[in-house]
Amino acid sequence: MSTGGAAGRIAGLVERLLGRSLPLAIRTWDGAQAGPEGGPVLVIRSRRALRRLLWQPDEIGLARAWVAGEVDVEGDLDEALIRLDGTLRDLGDRGRFTSADRAEVIRLAVVLGALGPPLKPPPEEVVLAGDRHSRGRDQAAISHHYDVGNEFYELVLGPSMVYSCAYWAGADDETAADAVTLEDAQRAKNELICHKLGLQPGMRLLDVGSGWGSLVLHAAQNYGVEAVGVTLSVPQAEYAKQRVADAGLSDAVEIRVQDWRDVTDGPYDAVASVGMAEHLGAALWPEYAALLYSLLRPGGRLLNHQIVRSGRPRAGGLARPRRTFIDAYVFPDGELIPVGDVLERLEAGGFEVRDVQALREHYARTLRAWVRNLERGWHRAIELAGEGRARVWRLYMAASAVSFDAARIGVDQVLAVRPYGDGRSDLPLARPVGWSL
């Protein structure tokens, strides 16, 4: 379906460049619409969106237009992203376009009145200063993502205040999933971690990247451990300390604002690292593994829960883009590595890897639950964090769910142990039922 106007011109050019029909309809600022009927509609609200793409014809240009509200989706965002997935990847491959293609794009921009100097990026885009993974830069990266406001995260995450993949045990189909709440699934995830770590009363647990304190609280309340949680986010720490005090566990749980490199008070019986290692990248992993090993007693266990990228080669052998939407707006300096690299680095640090559990589908479901929370509280989210930041979170969570579904990224729990000098591990010979998928 086409009604001409700006939408018809844009649709015609995109279809010529891609060699296929549009996956979803386009509506432009002049009210014109083109493309298939009966599904989501990509709404281009302003010529400014086209100008951004002229100067930055990749994922960053489109992200800037989205965050600024110059591009939107009418209808189901999840379906729109699924339909757009291949198209966005092709458009992101800038090498596929010839000089003639680029000239045609410029001619269309002239006709549509979209030419002009580059626009300033939205204020939500971050560029960090200093050496990558220096302490000050890591502090700034964590602050950018986590210091959005505890009330905003309460709205998105729900009462559990757990910002990592939930464990939807017993929810293999949609009917069963309706009976399992997000809070149930997050509680099950914390329980799974505690089981794998073999927690017992009186043990010492270290949670690296402890967030709002949910895991250390669960472990202290249900397993009688003494727990230490460390985070670089001051608002997170303040929130977690209040939760600990409200639970009457201040004698059992300590929350610190502390860089992981400064933790020196081992030995611990168990260490949890949940959603933390994604911030390290490949370069710091050897130091990280060595430190965690040094903090554990012999026989002590490490549970590393981490988002990973597929180890499969990229289509056409293309290198990873220099900068992505996630880099610029969500997790600056974050880096995903394949699970095989995680295992290699743990073993190089002295650990024996004993168990690996993939939870990829669980994270797609978790992200969609967070998106529903955000959409239900949309106006309040804007009041708390601003419209640009709310738009960032909605897009990143919805797009990440699509990437998990497509197996481009995954999430794995890796259980490792610091063995005794004679090779003993104190782990059970058989995997307990509670660890199974």
From TrEMBL:
Protein name, per record: Cyclopropane-fatty-acyl-phospholipid synthase
EC numbers on record: 2.1.1.79
Superkingdom of origin: Bacteria
Molecular function via GO: cyclopropane-fatty-acyl-phospholipid synthase activity
Keywords: Lipid metabolism, Methyltransferase, S-adenosyl-L-methionine, Transferase
Similarity comment: family membership: Belongs to the CFA/CMAS family.
Matches recorded under Pfam families: CMAS (PF02353)
Lineage: Bacteria, Bacillati, Actinomycetota, Actinomycetes, Jiangellales
Native species: Jiangella mangrovi
GO annotation terms (biological process): lipid biosynthetic process; methylation
Coiled coil: none
SUPFAM superfamilies: S-adenosyl-L-methionine-dependent methyltransferases
Keyword S-adenosyl-L-methionine annotated: yes
InterPro entries given in the database record: CFA/CMAS, CMAS, SAM-dependent_MTases_sf
Enzyme class, spelled out: transferase
